[in-house]
Specification:
about 240 residues; alpha+beta; elongated
Length: about 240
């Protein structure tokens, strides 16, 4: 019974985890410039008096901006609609909604190599998902499934998976450190202006949570593929 549960988990659950991982990472990569404009972002700048008036719980109306890998969306006040920039590997964030004393210069996009490497990683991830799923379900394909029994395809699938995982996770870790520092520098500058500073605060946002969950799911099929590769190598 335990063997059947293990087999079912490997065959059916693992491809589902990989598909879920793909969606989570893709949404985090495209938002907010392409989709989920107000729901998902890497960095947010929102109205708040926490830095200029510590301890205050007063609601603040003002400009805000959400930032992603391919662009940003901003609005001049809480009730206005978001206006998004065009998606680009080298985005220029729209900071025109902020006042002149806002340290918006620290909110530059990360180096252009980051979005490009992540796009490459996503492309490899899709290829890995197709190959991994085909290998898992080759017993249901009849004669067409025989091709996926060949060790060369199983080795290629494993190497594509680990390459995609390492490039993608490494790139997102760099982006997380970049935006974490940008948020700290932004908040430090506003705090230094005292009560005369703009009532804004910057924070890293929920896209990173989606990314960490996505790569936790991604790790499962990668480990399964590497285990199969180890078995092939010892035959």
């Amino acid at each position: 019974m335990l063997a059947n549960i293990s087999k079912a988990t490997t065959l059916y659950l693992t491809p589902v985890l990989m598909l879920t991982s793909l969606f989570l990472i893709l949404f985090a990569y495209l938002a907010p410039a392409v989709m989920l404009h107000s729901q998902v972002s890497l960095l947010t700048v929102t109205p708040s008096s926490a830095l200029t008036q510590p301890g205050s719980t007063q609601a603040v109306d003002g400009p805000s901006m959400v930032v992603g890998m391919l662009g940003s969306c901003s609005k001049p006040n809480n009730t206005a609609a978001l206006t998004c920039t065009s998606p680009s590997f080298t985005p220029v964030f729209n900071t025109s909604v902020f006042t002149s004393n806002t340290p918006s210069d620290v909110l530059d996009a990360p180096p252009a190599a980051a979005p490009v490497f992540l796009a490459i990683s996503l492309a490899f991830s899709i290829i890995f998902f197709v190959m991994f799923t085909a290998i898992s379900f080759r017993h249901l394909m009849g004669k067409a499934g025989n091709v996926w029994d060949k060790p060369v395809f199983q080795r290629a699938s494993a190497w594509i998976g680990i390459t995609s995982f390492v490039i993608g996770l490494g790139s997102f870790l760099i982006v997380r450190m970049y935006y974490g520092k940008a948020a700290d520098d932004f908040n430090l500058s506003i705090r230094g202006q005292g009560t005369n500073g703009p009532q804004l605060i910057a924070n890293t946002s929920n896209a990173f949570t989606m990314i960490w969950i996505g790569y936790a799911f991604f790790a499962v099929p990668v480990v399964v593929s590497l285990a199969k590769l180890h078995v092939l190598a010892t035959k």
